[in-house]
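Support request, please re-run this one:
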Amino acid sequence: GRAWIVGGAVRDALGGLVPGDVDMASTLRPDELRKLFPDAYAIGERWGTITVRHKGAACEVSTLRTGFGAGDGQRLDAIFTERLLEDLAFRDFTVNAMAVDARRGLLYDPFGGLDDIPKCVIRSTTDPAIKTLEDDGLRTMRAYRFVAIRVGWTMDPALAAALCESPRLLQNISAERIRKEFSLILKGPSAAAVLRQMADDRTLQAILQLQDGLSAEVPPEECDSGRHLALTAFSRGARGMLRRGVRAVGALREAGHSGAEGAMEALTLLLGGFPASEVERIMLNLKFSKAEMKLVTFHRGCLGHLPDASRPGELRRFLAAVGAEAAPRQLRLERAWAAAEEDAGLREEVLCRLSEVEAAVAALPGGYRVPSRLVDGKWVEARTGLRRRNVGLLKEWLFYVQLERDITDVEALDKVLTEHFDIVALHQSPELLEALPKVEWPLAEVGGS
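Re-run finished. Output below.
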């Protein structure tokens, strides 16, 4: 059999970059490759791809193929061929449709990919461009991703126009595959421009499963209900929410924040204006992990809730509730979110407040460091005789007081407890503990301390 280096490795090498991975194409079928390389991974075999391991290195080897399915965007079993040019013709973009015969020193470039590399343009290998997208609907997301993660790259007008068909082509693509590409888009340095294009193409609304801003059709019996009116109002505002979210992502990227964590930060901002229930629904539908959902929903819930820079106790409680690691991230998100505000006066007001908060936190003795709790549940139980939930409630209030008053020793905290409560009365009326403030963010409406 024969084999060629193909795809991104060829593109990157010709563009002066060091390839991260090397993919190969071969005339050998997957079963023949597995006989040659018994340790090969068979994941992806139905699509003609296996991962070969040899002398400590690994690369994906794909049997030459001319297609997968029936032109509806699905990716079915591979259709194999013996001809390299037929395989290259089936690839998505010209810069990815090149091959190198390393043994002979030959470059195969039937679609002009070499000319497109210095122009930083991605073009479809087919005319019309829609055909390459119909061969695998996920290619729509890959086109967006290609531009999002590479500064300065653009799409050929024909390909850009074909992406308007993305909502239809993505209908048969699994949520997991869409989420993987979407996450890569979100963390790209050019994410904002690509998200804006996706919104114009209605691709963004499709993957978020928004229908003109609605997450679902309203049942006929609810058409005259208050819920329908509320959803209609949400529908009218959804476009504005997405616009502000995209602007905020742009502000985040302009500040130089990207990378793996940047993807979830970008998603937080993109969905910053949506109700909590919509954010949760969107992330569940796209199969994001529980950890990712927790991060995004928490930071989104905190957006717009800045601590009072003139109150050190509130600043300490903010740091304790949000966390020493997450607090800088939250303030970073706040700055991007504020920068996306269209009202210039309000924007400057919030940015000024934010600068005051950042300066005030930096001026705290420990900076972003969160003070350790002076007492734990065992101490509370031994000191008061309370049990179970009541111990937890009182422990949280004591931490609240510790931070609010900047108490640094147990004796001083115990004195506050004695002054504030009659222990016997607490046993007789434990409901008093329910109304006590605790360390949380955003701030809840609570009683005094």
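The CA atoms of residues 5 and 390 lie 67 Å apart. Strands lie at 3-6, 23-26, 49-54, 57-63, 65-67, 79-80, 99-101, 106-108, 121-122, 154-155.
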